[in-house]
Structure formats: C-alpha cells, structure tokens
Structure prediction request, 754 residues.
Amino acid sequence: MGSIGHVTPQRLNFSEALPLRSGAQLRDYELVYETYGRLNADKSNAVLVCHALNASHHVAGTYEGQDKSEGWWDNLIGPGKPLDTDKFFVIGINNPGSCFGSTGPMHVNPATGSVYGADFPVVTVQDWVDAQARVLDVLGITQLAAVLGGSLGGMQALDWSLRYPDRMRHCIAIATAPSLSAQNIAFNEVARRAIITDPDFHEGHFYAHGVVPKRGLRVARMIGHITYLSDDVMEQKFGRQMRAAELGYSTQDIEFQIESYLRYQGDKFSEYFDANTYLLITRALDYFDPAREHGGDLSRTFASAKAKFLLASFTTDWRFSPARSREIVKALLDNKRDVSYAEIDAPHGHDAFLLEDPRYHGVLRAYFERIAKEFSA
Amino acid sequence: MGSIGHVTPQRLNFSEALPLRSGAQLRDYELVYETYGRLNADKSNAVLVCHALNASHHVAGTYEGQDKSEGWWDNLIGPGKPLDTDKFFVIGINNPGSCFGSTGPMHVNPATGSVYGADFPVVTVQDWVDAQARVLDVLGITQLAAVLGGSLGGMQALDWSLRYPDRMRHCIAIATAPSLSAQNIAFNEVARRAIITDPDFHEGHFYAHGVVPKRGLRVARMIGHITYLSDDVMEQKFGRQMRAAELGYSTQDIEFQIESYLRYQGDKFSEYFDANTYLLITRALDYFDPAREHGGDLSRTFASAKAKFLLASFTTDWRFSPARSREIVKALLDNKRDVSYAEIDAPHGHDAFLLEDPRYHGVLRAYFERIAKEFSA
Prediction:
C-alpha cells in the first residue's frame, strides 16, 4: 500500500448561475477539485468523496514540495488501500462556501465588486450536491460507482442517493445522521454565537477591517473538538494530567494538559479557517433534514433511493451516534433496499471515521472490492 | 407539604483570616447564610446543604414581597418535604468567591481598598468546607446530622466526610464525582476562555471600566446548559422545532427553538452572574480530586471517612455519570463503610438532581426519615 504521490488541484469556472435552496443564486463561481486514479473506458469506476466541515477537495496524496500535506483521507485512499486508486477513479470537490479554494465568503461578489463576507448566500447540502453534479457533467461522468462521505460528507452521500438516484450505484455514508439532533444544533449555535459576538467579526465584513474574529473561532473550535472525541479517549489521552507537578492556583493559566491541547487546537484553527465559512457549514448541517419534505417520515423519504448502501457508525461517537445510523438503515430496509451496516467498536468518538482502524477499514475494503467486481466483470 | 414561607438571610463577619489551599488568605470576610426549622436542644438535627455553581445560601422558602423567589432546592426542603424542616434544622451557606452575598470578586479587597476582581484568591472545595465549618462553630454545632449536596455541592459533602469525619453522621452526595473527567475540564476551560477573551473582561477588572463581559458569560452559560441536559430531554423538549414555518436561510437569525432557548438562558445569566465568580467556581470544580494526595487511590482516600453515606446518580447524566458515583461507592465498600446507592432512571440529565422526581425524592425522604430516627430516639 502506497501513497498516490503528488497530486495537483484543478479548477473549473461555472458561468451559469447555481440556483440555491434559499432562492438566491451563486453567480460566476469556481470549484476546485482533485482526481486520483484513472477513469476507465466506460467511465464506470468513479467514486465521489464528499468532505465535512474542516476538509476540502484535497482528499489524498501530497502536494509537491510540501511533505506534510497529506490529504485528509489519505489513510483510506491510494494504490492498494481500501479505496484502491489502481481500480477506482476518485474525485474530491471543494464545496462552494468553503475557505479552501472554491468560491466562498473570502472571494469577490461579482454583483458588487466587494468581498462577499457575510453576504455569501446560505448554502445547503442539496446545493453542494447540485454543484458536485455539475462537475461530474463536465467530466462526462453520468453514473458514479459510489458516493462516499463521513459526517457532513455522509449527509451529502445520502442526498445524492435521494436526488440523483440514477447517477450512482452505491452510497457509503459513515458516522452520519438523517438530521442533527437538538443537542447537535445547540453546539453549533454556541459556536456561531462565539464567532458572531466577537467584536472582530464586524457583522461578517471583518476582511475590510483587516482583522479576524480569532477569539470566536478559537472557542468554536474548542467546542467542536470536545464533541469529536469520546469521553473515553479524552480520559485515556489526557485524563487529569497536570502541566506542572504543583497546582498553580490560577483560573487563567494552563493547569491541565487537556487545556493546553484545546487551546492549541483553537489557536491553530483560528489561523486558517474562515469565520463566515464556519457559520455557513454549521448551518448547512443544521438544515439537512431530507425527511422534512416527507412529513418527517424517513421511510417515505428513502423510497426514491435506488443505490445499494453501506452505513457505518462508531460505538463511542456521541455526536452522530449509532442510533442515528440505525434510523437510516431501518428506513432503507422498510424500502427493501440493499443495505450493509457496520457498527464499529472504536474508542475514538466521531473522529474515528478519519482514523485507521483495521475493522473499519476492513469493512470499507471489502465493500469497495464488491463494487470493483461489478465494473471489472 | 408546604413551603417554609418567608426566610431571611443572615450575615457573619470573620475577622480571623481564612487560610486557603493556594497559600493565600482571605482576610476580613463575610458569609451569608440562611437557616430553616429549629435546632433541637442537643443540636443534633442540623443538616448543611452545600450549593453548586449557580446557587447560593437561599436553598428554600421565599423572600417577603418577592413571590417568585423560591430557594433553589425548595421542592426538597420544607415542612413535610423529604428534608423535613419540622424535624431538621437546615443551613445554607453562600461560599466565598460567590456573587450572591458572601465576600467575592465584586467586593473590596481590604488589603488594597479596591474591588478584588481577578485578584480574588483562587478558592477550592476544601476552602469552602473550612469556611462552612467556621459558620457552624459560631452556631455552636459540633456535629451535623448530615451534609447534603448535588454536583459541586456533592463534592463539598464528600470533602466534609474526609476532612471533618467527626463533625457529621451522614454524607449525602448526589450527581457528583470524585473528580472531573478530562471532558468536564475541557468544557470548563472553553467557557473560561470565552469569558477571559471577551474584550470587556479587562483582565478581570471590568468593574472599573463600567462594563461586563456579557458575550463571554452568554457563551459560557450556553455551553453549560447543553451539558446539564440530556440529549434525550433536549430532543423531547425542542427536537428540530422551527421558530417559523419556512426556513429563513440565515446563519445569524434564530431558526430552531433550541437556539432561542439557549440564547435566552445565556442572556439571562449574563445579567446577574459575575464573570470572576464563574472562573473561580469552575476552577474549584477542576481542582477537586481528594485522591490526588493518596496517589490516585480512591479507596485509601476514603479510609478516613466515618460517616454513613447515601449516593444517588441519574442514568442520563453525562456530565457526572452514574459510573463516577459508582467509583465512590466502591471506594466506600472497600473501607466497609455503610453506604446506600440509588441510580435513578430519569430523563433529565444532570439537571435531574434539582427536579422533583418521585423515585428520587422517595429515596431522599426515606434516608432522612432514617436519620431523624437516630436523634429522636
């Protein structure tokens, strides 16, 4: 098993406006994407990988001259890896609204000539999926072998199965949910309030002021980070480890290693992540609720799906618990869909979907081998 | 079962400095307290109730002319109630460092003549217990029938049992833990960072600037509130209820009822709670770890305890889970102590300890009836 090696992002400009769920349109936008492996002759081996909050089109491989630039799912994707680029043509697309290359709040609004900032239109999972479908149109891919995603990426994979049922054969949705719970929304809302009430946010137009709402971003990231990890793994990694042998009796200095870790994560995040993107992406999470248009009935919602499904969840994931995946599995079974489900006993909480766990990767490897047989046969 | 009726706080001044764990001293301080019921002739029916983060000496009853001023544990304490004031003499003491009457960061530091602010010394659970013991000295109570507390109040009850074993007969510790977990500390730290990085905090001396770090306090309270409630009860109370029939497609406006609820809780809290007190109290929570002085061995820690114990926890409390109470029960059993333990199946999360649940209150009623037999016999 090796790395894909050096990869190069590509860029597509779309002059045709993208109609959004909100009623607004995204005009004259660009999407950045990467591909790995080779598209076969009948274009039947393409896998779209959808990204979550803090990720991008850079899914695997490294950038030339940047040793530590592995893609966010590099442990899964490459020659001989579970999603084997010797067999599959893998596509990663950066969603609009992101801060990693595709048109987003940091770019100029063609309607005004000014940076979008808070005026960037609210985007939804459906809008992202529509934008991804247009990239596939350009690439000439009419049907994907699979759409794969974890967390918010899993929501995109589910949406693909509902709204583009003929354009995919398999849907692989990991550590995801059919909608956020009240508690999920609550954590998102606190993070948003921390950003929005930071005086450096300037109602989302901080770029013009030459500042960044770093205080808010730090707090948002710290909250997020706590919810990505399980209680158990935090206890194992940090427990009550102190920074010094003696207590310092301070409310502001770091006493416990977990404080140091969280502050570091918050600081790092605030250096590169865009505040408006954070608001947009958490809102897209909040809004995702495909059953809403079906009176809340998830079984009726999945009646339109045609793909075969693999779902996976992790026992210690309290952000997107196994129970939420089971809701989807039940809805699919109600519709007599072909569904595989793996509940992986892993200690790492929600973060587990990004980690290399042998049982988890074994499940994915076996499933992709099954898919590969379909088109090589 | 009735209310105690009108109650009146009392105030004690201590001219003898209180030595603190940090090595500092609290000089010339005042403590506010309330008592309910009558102390019997041999002073054997006194119960001390210890308060948690957002509470005070005002445990039960109401203040004259303020109809909605019920004490924070009024459902438990009163004539005929589980902690029956016809039998017991109940004492509530506001801990130093609080913002509800006892000497705290909003008061003048006698050493400087200026308001303490961030210079208020860091106080610990042990310091609070020492301060409470001095109040009992003044009241002439040498041995308490019981010390009762929930959450951080439960930690104080446990500390009483370890450091004043001869001054109490029963320890009742509810929804508590022998120490905070890494996740608990993490949530406290995020809340503290939100407060400390609010530009209106002014390094803890915001009083002099005529401002209050309300943004930070709001975020801190919102985080806290999420952790007090169970995922289940949030789902039942709010779920994905929208404020309007149609989505507003906004990252800043309220879309979901849970957002409205959290913002309201945050706003309310920021109007009355002191930011420095918040830092002090969360730090006292972080520091509490009586096993630390015993090489982390909780069984050895409780070897000094002489009281009889009642512990109670709630199945959906993920902040102080039943597993943490069971650690204490095991340590007590290792020492062959008399211990009762109730794990209450309640949906309300950590907040359950403040609510009126018939099984929970039944357990407390029965235990207090047992205690009452000891001194009336």
Summary: The two ends of chain B are 24 Å apart (CA to CA). Chain B has a mean pLDDT of 97. The CA atoms of residues 16 and 149 of chain B lie 27 Å apart. The longest strand of chain B covers residues 29-36.
